Amino acid sequence: MPRVDDFRLKLGSQEYVPIMQGGMGVDISTAELALAVCAEGGIGHISDAMGPYVSDKLFGTRFQSAKQKQFRQHANSLDKSEVQWDYERTYQGTFNHVKAAMEAKRGPGAVFVNTMEKLTMGNPQETLRARLVAQLDAGIDGITLSAGLHKGSLALIADQPRFHDVKIGIIVSSARALKIFLRSGDKFDRKPDYVVVEGPLAGGHLGFGLDWEKYDLKTIVREVMDFLKQEQLDIPVIPAGGVFTGSDAVAFLEQGAGAVQVATRFTIAQECGLPKLVKQIYLRSNEEDIVVNTSSPTGYPMRMLKNSPSLRSNVKPNCEALGYILDRQGKCAYHEAWDQAPIGPDGKKQAVESKMCICYHFMKYDCYTCGHNVYRLKDTTVRLPGGDYHLPSAAHIFNDYRYSIDHELAQPVVPEVERTGSNSAENGSTAHSKGERQAAPHSSLLIGA
Ligand SMILES: Cc1cc2nc3c(=O)[nH]c(=O)nc-3n(C[C@H](O)[C@H](O)[C@H](O)COP(=O)(O)O)c2cc1C
Predict the structure, then answer these.
(1) Which pick of 130, 155, 196, 277 has the fewest CB atoms within 10 Å?
(2) What is the pLDDT of residue 438?
């Protein structure tokens, strides 16, 4: 019976285990997570979302407080048109994050970065250019363009020395979107090295409307493959969204996919950036707890747990420090929603229902975005005596995808200290239920470990 490990993803002269861990912003797909996947021979993504904030958090820079100080006179106004980004700081924040990850990189895999067009930061082109150039300068292996059609993104870096050597891919949800992107590369003789086809069951923002249930990944993958064949293009197609077991992945690989991209399974990994408490919330979730709504001010629907605190918040827009999705006019859809929220009997603004302040709530990790299969995470690990679940290592999850057959989910081996009652430890070795599966070594590549 075939397993994921029987296949390989070829990108240029490199071969990888065909599992991509998808980008999860903001710093949910940490460098530690991407590095653990890379160490096992797959491709891990870090996220470029809110690079200056992430640099401040990880490396002690002060980009955000400097910006907040500079624009504090606008804090009580909803006119944020004067709140401008310093693109040198944007470059530096992104560079610091990517450079540290690339310096820590070990093993046969690769580390890519997920780069979202929707992070417009008051000047969509300049911010994207600064971020992309920083990623190239910092030595990233590959750039996955996401959250947008990226019609002008290749033009922003066509003059860069690594333009033809770095791997570039795009996330699309239709053959039509891919067609538009391909056309944009014609001028520069640059085709994508891979195409991630993200279906309606994915986490994060969706490339579908609220009628997402009408679509299915298999059909879209087939349409994209047919289109590429028609164009005589040999570009690996990488399905994403709802691939929960190794057998789900094998089904796509047998149909000619180059790899699969997965994310939700990794949200409970020890190396994942979500706080431990949030990982337990994901693990306890049920199918009826999930919602796809339009609370994201980006304009894209997003899947999340209904108990996300971001859906009951009245936080004041703080674009002086944040402002990652301000448009050219200094506007964000949250501004208007916040402005119109009624004042309650206590004299306080009531919860803003239609939109959330996405920068603030992603920074706080309290928008619980997830793939549709989040409620199945509890089947992938062990419940501890105190009621919490054991958090597996990224290597365990990766190797479960890699070696599983028959939709089996290998349970991680829980260390004695957790099994006997103290469930605070996040540490532990992992093994697979079948002798043929290799024990997945705990990654020793954690930054700072
Ligand atoms: C918590 C979470 C955050 C995500 N954030 C992003 C993101 O910042 N950018 C992006 O392009 N995709 C994002 N995604 C989508 C994933 O990269 C991936 O393509 C998708 O979730 C795969 O489906 P699966 O979660 O069912 O495995 C996110 C997914 C999750 C679960």
Answers:
(1) 277
(2) 36
CA distance 380 to 265: 8
Which residue owns the Cα nearest ligand 1 atom 30? 203
How far, in Å, from the CA of 60 to the mean position of ligand 1? 27
Query: Does the C-beta of 28 come closer than 6 Å to ligand 1?
Result: yes
Ligand 1 center from residue 80 Cα (angstroms)? 29
Orientation of helix 124-137 relative to helix 87-104, angle to 10°: 30
pLDDT single digits (tens) 287-312: 999 999 999 999 999 999 999 999 99
Q: Does 18 sit in the ligand 1 pocket, CB within 6 Å?
A: no
User: How far is Cα 170 from Cα 148, in angstroms, rounded to an integer?
Assistant: 9
User: How many angstroms separate the CA atoms of 222 and 208, rounded?
Assistant: 17
Residue 401 is which amino acid? Y
Among 60, 54, 33, 69, residue whose Cα is nearest residue 363 = 54
pLDDT tens for residues 46-55?
999 999 999 9
Q: What does the domain layout of the chain look like in residue ranges? A: 4-274, 287-363
Tokens of 36: 């653990």
Contact call for residues 69 and 105 (beta carbons, < 8 A): no
Angle, to 10 degrees, between the axis of helix 217-230 and the axis of helix 175-186? Answer: 40
* Structural domain 4-274, CATH architecture: Alpha-Beta Barrel (3.20)
Nearest C-alpha neighbor of 242 from the set 212, 279, 272, 281: 212
Distance 18 CA to ligand 1 centre (A): 17
Q: Which of 84-93, 232-241, 277-286 has the lowest mean pLDDT?
A: 84-93
pLDDT in tens, 95-131: 999 999 999 999 999 999 999 999 999 999 999 999 9
Which atom of ligand 1 sits closest to the CA of residue 242?
26
Residue nearest to atom 23 of ligand 1 (CA): 241
CA 143 to centroid of chain Cα atoms: 12
State how far the alpha carbon of 130 is from the alpha carbons of 85, 110, 137, 157, 429, in Å: 11, 22, 10, 10, 40
